[in-house]
Design a protein that fits this description.
It contains nine helices and no strands. By secondary structure, it is mainly α.
Length: 216
């Protein structure tokens, strides 16, 4: 697949993804109890992201390794590290500390599995592929990818049966802000190493609160 078709494929796939995951979560949340509807919805979402990455890469793992191995000279490295640390610490105290004592072994296992899968897969799709194919295009590689990433979270908000006590701002608004931050970090560094790590940590903290509230 040449560069032109790779660019077109990732862009088209992202616009198709939005209605796909919305319908997917509507179906799974109405077919299964909230916990399993949520999990099966994510399984479908992850499968879509990984399949798209595999198609764009032409099954070439070296292509995908580029989003991990390359490194740009980053004059903002210290600032980026400081901001990421502040965000992670804030999420730790807001999302994790109040509910960690309520975690059961099974709920904790769900949290760890979901977070360690979701972080890398989302970063590969929303940051990695756009970094590889639109590195010099700020409008698409930065602004559009960030907006699309935030928008897909509406699918979670409208899923039936899930309780989001923090409201739509946390479910949808925060992902827009995190998408902005992670896209800036990935494009500044030239890789997704820092964004994968912080994405996993923030998902652990956020899923802890969400899963406790919904009795996973």
């Amino acid at each position: 697949m040449n560069v032109k078709y790779k660019k077109r494929t990732i862009l088209i796939s992202s616009f198709i993804l939005l209605p796909f995951v919305f319908v997917l979560f509507q179906v799974t949340s109405r077919t299964f109890e909230p916990k399993w509807g949520f999990i099966t919805g994510f399984l479908g979402y992850w499968s879509y992201c990984l399949l798209t990455a595999w198609l764009i890469s032409g099954s070439d793992l070296n292509y995908l390794k580029g989003v991990w191995n390359q490194q740009l000279e980053n004059k903002h490295a210290k600032l980026i590290g400081f901001i990421l640390a502040i965000v992670v610490i804030a999420c730790f105290f807001i999302g994790f500390v109040p509910d960690v004592t309520k975690l059961t072994v099974s709920t904790g296992a769900f949290v760890l599995i979901m977070a360690t899968l979701n972080g890398p897969i989302e970063e590969l799709y929303w940051r990695g592929l756009y970094l590889l194919e639109y590195q010099d295009d700020t409008r698409i590689g930065f602004i559009l990818s960030m907006l699309l990433f935030g928008t897909w979270h509406f699918s979670l908000w409208f899923a039936k049966g899930m309780i989001y006590k923090e409201g739509i701002f946390v479910v949808v608004g925060v992902p827009y802000m995190l998408g902005l931050l992670w896209t800036w970090v990935a494009r500044s560094n030239g890789n997704i190493r820092a964004t994968v790590l912080t994405h996993i940590l923030i998902n652990i903290f956020a899923f802890t609160s969400l899963f406790v509230d919904n009795s996973f």
